[in-house]
Amino acid sequence: MYCRVDAAVPILRIWRDEGAELWQDFRLSRRAMNSLQRLLPKIMVGGINLKS
User: What are the sequence ranges of the domains in the chain?
Assistant: First the structure.
């Protein structure tokens, strides 16, 4: 693994919880946030494609 993700970070805890509502923090539904994430360009770090 290239780096270790700290799951205790509040934003990651909210994001990883599929049942959590994102509206209060981001003013976007989870469906809208997922759609926006798919629109992001590919991110490469050290030759590793981080976008699946």
Answer: 10-49
Place of tokens 């799951």: 7
The CB-side HSE value for 12 (13 A sphere, CA atoms) comes to 6
At 33, give phi and psi (nearest 5°): -65, -40
Which H helix or E strand runs over 31? helix 30-39
Can you tell me the distance from the alpha carbon of 13 to that of 50, in angstroms, rounded to the nearest whole number?
19
Digit-by-digit pLDDT tens for the chain (52 residues) are 567 778 788 888 887 888 888 888 888 888 888 888 888 766 655 555 665 5
pTM of this prediction? 0.51
Amino acid (1-letter code) at residue 13: R
> Three-state DSSP class for 4?
coil
